[in-house]
TrEMBL record:
Signal peptide: none
Keywords, sorted A to Z: Flavoprotein, Oxidoreductase
SUPFAM superfamilies named in the record: FAD/NAD(P)-binding domain
Protein name, per record: Thioredoxin reductase-like protein
Species of provenance: Halovivax asiaticus JCM 14624
Positions in coiled-coil regions: none
GO MF annotation: an example: oxidoreductase activity
FAD/NAD(P)-binding domain location: 15-139
Length: 327
């Protein structure tokens, strides 16, 4: 469920964001982008590198460890709940969209506005091609599907092995925030050696998702001081009378707007009111917190073996009866 009213990044493309890879990095990035209102599709071939792990012992929040199948189901369930569409298919290529040339009115053709050519065409193995304004590479398979996106061919590095040259995706190609020299292309994996740890891969995906959101905000005219993004909720009881007043938020907004900006008054007002709506929506009343806690627990039960649930329920009932007799 999206928590904001952020408009789509663009209606020029099929999707705002296409993520290649449905493992921890890809799902983590998608949860952030989808929750911000961006139309997000995750292509997952079902062979994430995490599935080579026998049992995950060091993922925070699972003191008894977690089997990979259950974790994978939880990740995909969460991504879909956030608003992502998960497509079970292998991406074969990602290419730049080509600008559309305007028709010549002299020939009686209807005029067509050219596109900016800044998006991508994503070609899967089985399904139809789709277009996207931004692409997140979040899979460890060799990156061959991105070949040709960088005119400088800097994505790949050559290694000599036993007298033969081999090309590999350069894990240092992207910046630490996932940005690359290719506008609109972000790398969540493959990257440095730390990516082999699942928790780090999920954190990397979150960082890339937030970077993508902030880049989109800048493109929509947000001044740099207002482009930062966070996704969390607070208790409504922390919202005092001063901060329930929209005018107080307006004052804060204008204090952060730089003196030199290129926005019209109408554009500035639109961004301001949208940002105030977003911030106020992060304050949640107590009864809603309780509802979300219960719902969260119930959703976890969907991924726990029924026999274990019944076994635990019987033990709880036995303990309660024993306590009642003792009292």
């Amino acid at each position: 469920m999206n928590t904001t009213t952020t408009p789509r990044d663009s209606t020029e493309y099929d999707h705002d964001v296409v993520i290649v890879g449905g493992g921890p990095a890809g799902c983590s990035a998608g949860i952030f982008t989808a929750r911000d209102g961006l139309d997000t599709v995750i292509f997952d071939r079902g062979r994430s590198s995490i599935q080579r792990c026998a049992h995950l012992e060091n993922y925070l929040g699972f003191p008894g460890g977690i089997d990979i199948e259950t974790l994978y189901e939880l990740m995909h369930d969460h991504a879909e709940e956030a608003g992502c569409n998960i497509v079970t298919d292998l991406v074969e290529s990602v290419e730049r969209t080509q600008p559309v040339e305007s028709a010549d009115p002299a020939d009686g053709d209807e005029a067509v506005e050219p596109t900016d050519g800044g998006g991508f065409v994503v070609t899967p193995q089985e399904g139809p091609q789709v277009t996207a304004r931004r692409v997140v590479a979040a899979t460890r398979y060799d990156g061959e599907y991105m070949r040709g996106l960088d005119d400088e061919a800097a994505m790949f590095e050559v290694h000599d092995h036993d007298g033969e040259e081999h090309e590999h995706f350069d894990k240092q190609y992207a910046e630490c925030d996932g940005t690359t020299p290719v506008d609109g292309l972000y790398i969540a994996a493959p990257y440095g050696e730390t990516g082999y740890q699942t928790s780090m891969a999920a954190g990397r995906g979150a960082r890339v998702g937030i970077t993508l959101i902030e880049d989109g905000r800048r493109e929509r005219g947000y001044p740099e001081a207002l482009a930062n993004h966070y996704d969390w909720v607070r208790r409504e009881t922390e919202l005092d009378d001063e901060w329930r007043d929209r005018d107080r938020w307006r004052e804060l907004f204008h204090d952060r707007v730089p003196d030199e900006h290129e926005l019209s008054e109408e554009q500035l007002a639109e961004i301001r009111e949208r940002e105030i709506d977003r911030r106020l929506a992060t304050y949640v009343p107590t009864e809603e917190i309780d509802r979300r806690v219960e719902r969260g627990h119930r959703r976890l039960l969907d991924h726990i073996d029924d026999d274990l649930i019944l076994e635990t329920a019987r033990k709880i009932e036995t303990d309660r009866r024993t306590t009642a007799v003792d009292n």
